[in-house]
Amino acid sequence: MTSSRTVVQPASHPDPAGNYSTAIRAPLTAGTSLLFISGQVAKAPDGTPTAIGDAGGQTARIFDLIEEILDEAGGSIDDLVALTIYIVDMADFSAVTTVRNKRLGASPPTSAIIQVSGFARREFLVEITATALLGEAP
């Protein structure tokens, strides 16, 4: 089977820190595709952590990054069908969900929040993966 998947990497994003893609657009049926967005953390364009110590601020930055990826792929926040949110401290649950709820449209995607013991860098408190259902490729 020949793959016609497309890597999505906005120019404004730091390159991935490992051997993975920021996002992959995969055709589903004629005129539709799925966009799989790798776990996003609160990074500035130069790759440095942002909103250190502020889970709500990190969540807002992550949604900015997700929206940039969706835009690059020809989609929008309304195209999200699934989110998985990883947090280090459940005490941050309210701050994270408040931002999530403000950023999502009237028809929000499925969502799960999972507590983890930590991320590759201690500064990160939140990581979000996402999947979107898109129409025709731009």
TrEMBL record:
A molecular function GO annotation:
deaminase activity
Looking at the UniProt entry, the stretches that span the membrane are: none
What is the official name of this protein in its record? Enamine deaminase RidA, house cleaning of reactive enamine intermediates, YjgF/YER057c/UK114 family
Q: Which Gene3D superfamilies match?
A: RutC-like
Q: Name one GO cellular component term.
A: cytosol
The UniProt annotation puts the region (Disordered) at 1-20
The family line of this record is:
Belongs to the RutC family.
Q: Name the InterPro entries on file.
A: RutC-like_sf, YjgF/YER057c/UK114
Q: Which domain of life is it from?
A: Bacteria
